[in-house]
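ABC transporter permease: C-alpha cells wanted.
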Amino acid sequence: MLVAAIVFWLAAWGMNVAIANSPGRDTTPARVMVPLMFGVALLVLWEGLVTAFNVPGVILPPPSQVAQTIAGSTGMLWIDFRQTLLKGALSGYAIGCVVAFLVAVLIDRVPFLTRGLLPIGNFVAALPIVGIAPILVSWYGFDWQSKAAVVVVMVFFPMLVNTVQGLRETDAMQRDLMRTYGASYWQTLMKLRLPAAMPFIFNGLKISSSLALIGAIVAEYFGSPTHGMGFRISTGVGSLSIDLVWAEIAVAALAGTLFYGLVAWFERRVTFWHPSHWH
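Answer:
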C-alpha cells in the first residue's frame, strides 16, 4: 500500500511538472488540474502512510475513514454548517464589514477621526480572541448572536484599515481635476476614490472571509447550543471521535475556500481594470 501510494505521488508530481511546463499552463483547466492533482496525491500518500504504519484512528484516521464519516453524517454536518457558517460567520462578516466601511468613509470625511479611531481600532485588533470570546458569549448568549459578535470584532479592523488606505490611493492632481469640474465630495467619492479603493476593499474582504470562519468556530468553544462546528470539534476530541473531528475540519476548510474564492471571483469582475489581473 505504501509503495503504491509513493508511486502515485511521484506520478502526480511528474504530471504536475509536465502541465506547468506545457504551452497550455495558463488555461483554466491547467490551473485547476495542478492543485487538484497535488491535493489528491497528498491524500493518497496520507492513506498509504497511515495504513502501512498501522497508525491508530484516535491519532490520525485515514482519509477513507474520514470520507465514510462525512457520507454517514451529512445531516449532522449540515446542521453544524448552518449554525456556524450561515448564521454565525456570515452574519458577523456582513455586519463587521459594512460597519467598518462606513466608519472608514466617516474617517475620510472627518480627518481628525483618523487620529482618534484608528488607534482604538488597532487596540481592539490586538485583543486576544480567546479572552474576548467568553465575554461576548456571556453578553449575547450561547446561540449564533454571540458568535456573530466575535466575528464582528475580528473582521472590523482589517476591513477598516484597508478601506481607509484605499480611499487615500488617489493623488492630489486627480482630486484637483475633479474639483475643477465642480464635483462635490460625494461625486468625487463615488466616481474617483471608491473605484480606486476597490482593490484595497477587496483585500479587506478576502482577509476577513478567513477570519470570520475562524472566529465563529473558536467562539463555539466557549459556549454554544448542542450543534455547531466548534462544539462538535471540542466534543469529538473529548470522546476520541477523531474521524468526526477531521470531517468537521474538512467541511470547514472546503467552506472557507469556497467563500474566499467567491469573494475573489467578485473582485476580478469589479476590478478587472487593475494591472494585477492582466497576467
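The chain has eleven helices and no strands. The CA atoms of residues 96 and 152 lie 4 Å apart.

Cheers.
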